[in-house]
Each structure stands twice: as structure tokens, then as C-alpha cells.
Specification:
The structure is a homodimer of 405-residue chains. The first copy, chain A, contains 14 helices and 14 strands. Chain A has 405 residues and is of the alpha/beta class. Chain A folds into 2 domains: 256 residues, Type I PLP-dependent aspartate aminotransferase-like (Major domain) (Aspartate Aminotransferase, domain 2), CATH 3.40.640.10; 120 residues, Aspartate Aminotransferase, domain 1, CATH 3.90.1150. The first copy, chain A, starts with 11 loop residues before the first strand and ends with a helix. The relative contact order of chain A is 0.16. The model of chain A has no long low-confidence stretch (mean pLDDT 95). Chains A and B meet through helix 1, helix 2, helix 3, helix 4 and strand 4 of A and helix 1, helix 2, helix 3, helix 4 and strand 4 of B.
Chain lengths: 405, 405
């Protein structure tokens, strides 16, 4: 029996993602389908690749969206470069660094963790000892830790990785399109992202780019591994990539000039990504990044006036994901619930060891607007004000407005 | 620099998928986003699970859409049940059986192929010898071979698999919603599909269902394997599932009553799937299946009058994917190109060893309409008529119309 139609409530999305989506992107997604091997569709694929390169700050020929969410991009980044038994060094200072270790471990990788308290960032020197212990395939770090709001500098990371023969893998899920991502300047080798954060495109795709060095490593692996023989598969294949769906050499043939059928690309989602990237480039990357910085500054000016404190390390706070320390004795769930129920505003709570300790306020892409900051501050002050005595909200709003100017 | 807006041409999609999508599904996809952990979104997830069970013909509690295309569903089906070295028996009579062998091989499985000519189907007895050779984890077969148009009967397959201690895995990508799929009656254990065929929802999701027996096997594996320890990953994990993104036990916790955050579900795509499933159940499954059968019969009546022959084995031809033998001396690519360029109709060519030998005409979901059959027959007769002498099209159209009555 058919269920009732689903009509989503009108929310203001200020959580850790998805962010609000521009109506132009939603309209693009509602266009009728064409085949995924249609010559017109192939033009769309090419344009997406071109625009993604610009947003990633790279000339990498291998730049395309994986047909899965950001976590699929993470998995693709590991499964294509790690073989069982290979060592990988991972910076762990939040949920997504932890997730990286689990992904690598499930693939049989030997995972070496370099740990910082959640909310702190790493220096390149932090990774030297772990890399020096023995050959590692990858140094993996998270540029924008969605779980803590920490903004990890990437400068110097490629040098320490490359000095030890490792490739540099960077998660830019919560930074791409909202915080500077400069793949070529970083000399990063494997960089993936998601669409539902600062790009403000619905979740479902994971843009991914590979440096020429990473691509070369893939090609060497493909050339040295057994080739799938079709009729008589050999009993073992220790060198083969443990995924068909995320095999980047096969995706390259589908998205590249060969156009060899692999899977069926998610057509509507790619219509949406195309329009979302157009919006990013119409606004201009520099203007977009400065908008993110300004609206985050406005938020913090307002929150400071209310007496609230940031969680992440000073000087390393993401404008896209603002982690707010929950004051002692406050029931953070009740505040989030009131925001959602009474004001239809979504924000996030803490994950893992930060559960109950922080709120996560996303100001990403289309959601990063001064009007949203003001609306949030007013609602937040009311919701939190039922639990503790807060300063008057008016000076907080004025402070936010002044900071946004 | 932003690229030009992308406006897809208006196509009639009669290829191997995607099929045409009902405007209601496109409109559903254009609704504004809510968070993927929003209580309202959780209701949507529950309704999708309920409707999927009905369409799959199952009471399996584990029934959900994977966040990837049909090939991701295929990979999830293997990676969760196979460990390196495990044996798997695969029926290979087309591209998708072949793909199954490659997926399993990449995971380190020992693949035992049971082969038929492309276009022919298997009997349960065909698998007895391969299963009897030694313990196998899975017997994997394709219900609807998209590459050949063959409709594989599933009756008796579970018995032969279970008698030998294997689980039965069935690909229903090109059958679900257009050809009877009866998971419980089949006693099939692992069944996956895609959205862009007979469900007429854009590509990007893979509905998947597990029998209690399959779920039990997963739980036994999870209980016997090493648990990811977080802080000190062990160096090896031979029993762990070689994928984080497609780990069904983790997806169960996200889609089940626990609602543990895993990845971010593709929200817009799920809006679309919800509306697409509503359309299926509003029409009624029985009516929908009979519509598919009738329109395919109409197509074949018309094609027969033009002197064209089916490719797949008699009595085992899919109504959703009609494989037409290319007459000797005909350049099949030129015909497809003319259909696309001059009539904006997409059909498919042959893949792999059937390249140049067949056309594939999909009559799936929203595309399966008598008006589309007539439009195709007229255009096809004109396009093919430039290369060979064909009978007059009018009797063919009349024959098609009569068969559709």
C-alpha cells in the first residue's frame, strides 16, 4: 500500500551538514533524465570536472565526483592505495580521523595513529616519528574536522609525507567551497570532499582529485597486479583493489576520454552538482570564502556577547563548523530540541567523546548568511535562556551585525 | 569560471536504463532538504523500508536502499558475506554475471563460474556439480540479465544452494517493479536492485534485502571477527568486512531502530525513491507487472511484423529489456545514432561479446507505455529502413496495437 506523500518541513539547516540548498540546485535536480552515456551527458561530466578542478585549486586531470557520499570518497582514497599489511599513518583528533583508521583497518592496513586531543590540530613535526618507524603508503589527515570545528593547516604536510615516501591524503569534506582548499599548492596527493557542506549540493557525491604522483602509484599497482582474466579467475589476488565500485582506474576510464561503461552515474545528483558548482564560481571563490569567514566572525561576536566559548584550538577554528562549548550544567539536547521544534532550526550536537560537551553550528554554503546568524542567535538565546541566566540578546545581535560589516 | 547552465535535451529513454521518470518523482527531488537525522526524515526512511518490502515481496526486517547505484548493491552483497579464500559459485551468462565474478575476485574470493551462452538461462541442476565440489558461501545469479534480455527463473535455486550450505544471492536490478520479484517465495537470501530501471527513479540508490538466514550469517561473522578497537587497531583482521561504506551491520544500525550515525544519507534521492515507490503501489504491483508484459508483447508483435528476431532464449525473455537481434550486414551503431539524433530516442547496443549483435530496447517503469512502443516502432523502421528493405511499418503498428489491447 502506498504511504502518504512526504512533504518535508521547512528547516533552517545550521548543523554539520547537509546545508541549505539554493533553489537553483533543486530545480536543476528536477530536470528530466537523459542517458548516462548520452553525448550531452558526457558534456555535463566534462564541465563538472573542469569546475571541480577550479574549486579544488588543482590542475589534476584526475578530478571527478565519486557516486557515493563523502565516506565513499574516504573509502575510495584508502582502498585504491592500501594493500593488506601496508602501513598508514593517520592523524586522529576527532570522529573523521578515527573513521579513517577504521576504514584502513577493515581493508587490512596496519594503522599507526598519531593522536591529539579533540579540537587541537597537528604540526608536520607531529608525524615525523610515526613516518620514520617504517615505510608507510599514506599520511592521512582531516583538513576540517566536522566533529570538533578544528581547522588543520596543511602547509608542510606534503613535505613530511613525501620525505618518508608516503602520499598525502586529505579529507576536505567540510572545507571545500567554504575554506581555502589549494590542492596543488599543498602538493597533496589524494583529496576528497562531500557535496552537502560548503558546496550546498544535496548529499550523495564525493568529489575526489589525485595528483600525478598518486595516479602514477595507481597505474603501477594496476600494472603489477593480476589482471582479471574473465574466464578463469586465479584463486588469489593480493595486489588487486578490494573494491569494484570504487576502483579509481575503472572510474577514470568511465569519466575520462575512453568513456567505458562502469556503473550508471547518478544523473539527477550530477545535474545538481553542476548547478551548485556554477553558483560557487559565479559568486567567485574568494568572495565565497570571505563570506564564510565574515559570517562566522559575526556568529562568534554574538556568542561571545552571550558568554559562550568556542571549543576548538585558538587560531584554528573553522568558519564553516563552529563548535560551541556547552556551559556547565546545561542539557544540550534540550536546547537542540527546542531549536528544532520551536524555531525549525537544525544544529548538531557533539559526537563520540564530545557528546554533551559541544554544539556544532554549521555556516556552510547557502546557509552562511548574516540573516541566518541573527535568526540563530535570537532563537538560541531563548532556548538556552530557559536553562541559565543569559545576558540580554540585543547587544549580542548588535555585536554580530557589527562584525559582519 | 562558471560553465553555462545545463539543460538536458528531451529524450525518450528506451535503453537499458535509466528509464523515464514520472514528473512527480522529479518534483519530490526538488523539495528543500532536512537533516538526515531529523525526526521527520526518520519517518521517511521507515516508509521507504515498508514500501520496499512490499515491492520485493518480503517480510525481511533488513530491507533498505544502499547509498550507491546497483553496482554498489552488488558489491555490498559480496563484501559482507565473502572472506578472502571463500568459494562462491556464480552463474555467468552475460555482463552482470561476469561483473559478479570480478567483484568477488577483487575481494579475494575463489570464484567458480557456471557458464551458459549469453541469452540462455540456467536450471537449478546446472549448479549442483559446482556446489558439490566443496563448501561455497554463495550461489549468485542474475534474475534479469540487462545485457542479454534473458529472464532467469529463480524457482528451485534456493533449494540447490541451501542443500549445499550456500546462501542464494540474486541480482534484480532490471526486474524489480517490472517483472515478478518474490523474495520470500523464492527463499532468496541476499537480493539487491537499482532504482533507475522498472522503479523509474533516477540512478543513485540500490535497494537491498536480507533473509533472516543471511542476517544471521552477518551477525555470526560480526561476533567472531575482531572488533575495531579504536585506539589500538590490531595488525591484521582476516574476518573483518573489507568495506566501511557498505558494511551492512553498520547500515542496519543507521536504518534500524538504533539510528546510529553512519554516513549522510542522500536526502534528495530518498525523496525521489519515496515518491517512486508510492507510484508503484498506487498503480498496484499486479497491474504494473501486467502493463510491462503487455507493452513488451506489443513491441514484439511490431518487431516480428518488421521481420526482426529476439535474441534471448524462447520463453525466457524479459518484458523490461527486449534484446533485438541485429540483422546481418546492418550497422547497428548507425541505427542507434539516428534514433538519438533524429528522433531523440535512446536505446542500447550490445555489451561485451554481444557488441554489434543486438539492440537493447528497454520498456521499464514510466517508459513502458504503448505510445512509446508505437513511437519507437515508427522511428526504428525509418532508421533501419535506410540500411535494408523492410516491410511497410503500418501493419507492424497495427499488430503492436492489437497485442496491447
Amino acid at each position: 500500500m502506498a504511504e502518504a506523500p512526504f512533504v518535508p518541513p521547512a528547516r533552517l539547516l545550521l548543523g554539520p551538514g547537509p546545508s541549505d540548498v539554493d533553489p537553483r540546485v533543486l530545480a536543476a535536480q528536477a530536470q528530466s533524465l537523459i542517458g548516462h552515456l548520452d553525448p550531452e551527458f558526457i558534456k555535463l561530466m566534462d564541465r563538472i570536472k573542469t569546475m571541480l578542478r577550479e574549486v579544488f585549486g588543482t590542475a589534476n586531470p584526475f578530478t571527478l565526483p565519486i557516486s557515493g557520499t563523502g565516506s565513499a570518497g574516504m573509502e575510495a582514497s584508502f582502498v585504491n592505495f592500501l594493500r593488506p599489511g601496508d602501513r598508514v599513518v593517520v592523524g586522529v583528533n576527532g570522529v573523521f580521523g578515527t573513521r579513517m583508521t577504521e576504514v584502513a583497518w577493515k581493508l587490512g592496513g596496519q594503522v599507526e595513529r598519531v593522536v591529539k586531543p579533540w579540537g587541537q590540530v597537528f604540526t608536520p613535526a607531529d608525524f615525523g616519528p610515526a613516518l620514520a618507524k617504517g615505510p608507510a603508503k599514506l599520511l592521512a589527515i582531516v583538513h576540517a574536522e566536522t566533529s570538533t570545528g578544528a581547522w588543520q593547516p596543511i602547509e608542510g604536510m606534503a613535505a613530511v609525507a613525501h620525505d618518508h615516501g608516503a602520499l598525502l591524503l586529505v579529507d576536505t569534506v567540510t572545507s571545500l567551497g567554504g575554506v581555502p582548499v589549494e590542492v596543488d599548492r599543498w602538493e597533496a596527493d589524494i583529496v576528497y570532499s562531500g557535496t552537502q557542506k560548503c558546496l550546498s549540493v544535496p548529499p550523495g557525491l564525493s568529489p575526489l582529485t589525485l595528483s600525478p604522483k598518486a595516479l602514477e602509484a595507481l597505474k603501477v599497482r594496476a600494472a603489477s597486479g593480476p589482471v582479471f582474466p574473465g574466464t578463469t579467475p586465479p584463486p588469489s589476488n593480493p595486489n588487486s583493489i578490494q573494491s569494484w565500485y570504487l576502483d579509481l582506474m575503472q572510474l577514470e576510464k568511465y569519466w575520462g576520454s575512453d568513456r567505458v561503461y562502469h556503473h550508471t552515474a547518478p544523473i539527477s545528483a550530477l545535474y545538481g552538482l553542476h548547478e551548485g558548482l556554477r553558483l560557487v564560481l559565479e559568486e567567485g571563490l574568494a568572495a565565497r570564502l570571505s563570506r564564510h569567514a565574515k559570517n562566522s566572525a559575526a556568529l562568534w561576536a554574538g556568542l561571545a556577547a552571550l558568554g559562550l566559548k568556542p571549543w576548538a584550538q585558538e587560531g584554528h577554528r573553522l568558519p564553516s563548523l563552529n563548535a560551541v562549548t556547552v556551559p556547565d550544567g546545561v542539557d544540550e539536547v534540550a536546547v537542540r530540541k527546542a531549536l528544532l521544534t520551536d524555531y525549525s532550526i537544525e544544529i548538531g550536537g557533539g559526537l563520540g567523546e564530545l557528546k554533551g560537551k559541544i554544539w556544532r553550528v554549521g555556516l556552510m554554503g547557502h546557509s552562511s548568511r548574516i540573516g541566518n546568524v541573527m535568526r540563530f542567535l535570537e532563537a538560541f538565546a531563548k532556548a538556552l535562556g530557559t536553562q541559565m541566566k543569559l545576558p540580554d540578546v540585543k547587544p549580542a545581535l548588535s555585536a554580530a551585525e557589527a562584525a559582519a560589516r
